């Protein structure tokens, strides 16, 4: 067995892979948010449609997208493996008497939080990514050129109050997931330090609030706009 397979089959190796995939997905959230915020520009969706067209046709972005799906899959698989390993190795009495004192609610419920986020992600991909790739899309003209009108698909979805509520609640779950995962990833990578750890925790707390809040803001604003 090679050192790579030995490392990835060990508990430390699994945690390391969880941390690395988690940090990549955190970076993806920032990039994805930057693109989605163009939905709020007052140009009728032109900027977002051009952005969506560029993302769909750029070879580099296509490779990154495949990697992103792979990292999501790895993150899910290793989270399940680590959760099962922790359940088997943790004494029941110890867990019952100490878990509330030594850990946060988010850290004790990362499995539940991750499951809800995964379900939301599947629904979200079905409604947008799948439709953009395999569905029949409306078109729009921008500066004399025809583009797929992805904005119209998004606007129609965000005009549905139930979808908006599900989206906002899911972002709440994401916030709790990030509140533990951000600092935990740095700790797993050995980047915790008595001098820098407080800063990492503060940045992580701010990130876990700001990013999900901005994601949630988009459907809320677009729903309000749909009422006028």
Walkthrough of the structure:
- The chain is mainly alpha-helical and 228 residues long.
- The chain has one domain: 3 helical TM bundles of succinate and fumarate reductases, CATH 1.20.1300.
- 80% of the residues lie in helices and 4% in strands.
- It is built from 11 helices and 2 strands.
- It has a two-stranded antiparallel ribbon with strand order 1-2.
- Helix 10 runs antiparallel to helix 11.
Summarize this structure as a short list of keywords or feature phrases.
two-stranded antiparallel sheet; single chain; 228 residues; 3 helical TM bundles of succinate and fumarate reductases; mainly alpha
CATH superfamily membership, which one?
A: Fumarate reductase/succinate dehydrogenase, transmembrane subunit
Helix content: over 70%
CATH architecture descriptor: Up-down Bundle
- Rounded to the nearest angstrom, the radius of gyration is 20 Å
Classified by CATH, the class is Mainly Alpha
Spatial order of the strands forming the largest sheet: 1-2
Reading the helices and strands in chain order gives HHHHHHHHEEHHH
How would you state the average pLDDT, rounded? 85
Number of helices: 11
Strand percentage lies at under 5%
Question: Whole-Å distance between the termini?
Answer: 64 Å
Tell me the number of strands.
2
């Amino acid at each position: 067995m090679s050192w790579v397979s030995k490392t990835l089959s060990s508990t430390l190796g699994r945690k390391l892979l969880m941390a690395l995939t988690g940090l990549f997905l955190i970076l993806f959230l920032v990039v994805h948010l930057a693109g989605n915020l163009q939905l709020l520009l007052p140009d009728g969706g032109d900027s977002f449609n051009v952005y969506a067209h560029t993302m769909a046709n750029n070879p580099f972005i296509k490779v990154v997208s495949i990697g992103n799906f792979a990292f999501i899959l790895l993150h899910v698989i290793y989270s399940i493996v680590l959760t099962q390993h922790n359940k088997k190795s943790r004494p029941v009495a110890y867990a019952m008497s100490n878990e509330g004192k030594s850990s946060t609610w988010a850290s004790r419920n990362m499995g539940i939080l991750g499951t809800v986020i995964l379900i939301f992600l599947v629904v979200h991909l079905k409604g947008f990514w799948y439709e953009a790739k395999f569905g029949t899309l409306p078109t729009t003209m921008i500066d004399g050129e025809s583009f797929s009108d992805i904005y119209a698909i998004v606007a129609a979805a965000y005009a549905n109050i139930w979808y908006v509520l599900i989206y906002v609640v899911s972002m709440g779950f994401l916030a709790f997931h990030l509140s533990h995962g951000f600092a935990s990833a740095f700790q797993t990578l050995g980047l915790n330090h008595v001098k820098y750890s407080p800063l990492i925790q503060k940045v992580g707390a701010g990130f876990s609030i700001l990013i999900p809040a901005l994601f949630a803001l988009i459907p809320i604003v677009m729903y309000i706009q749909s009422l006028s």
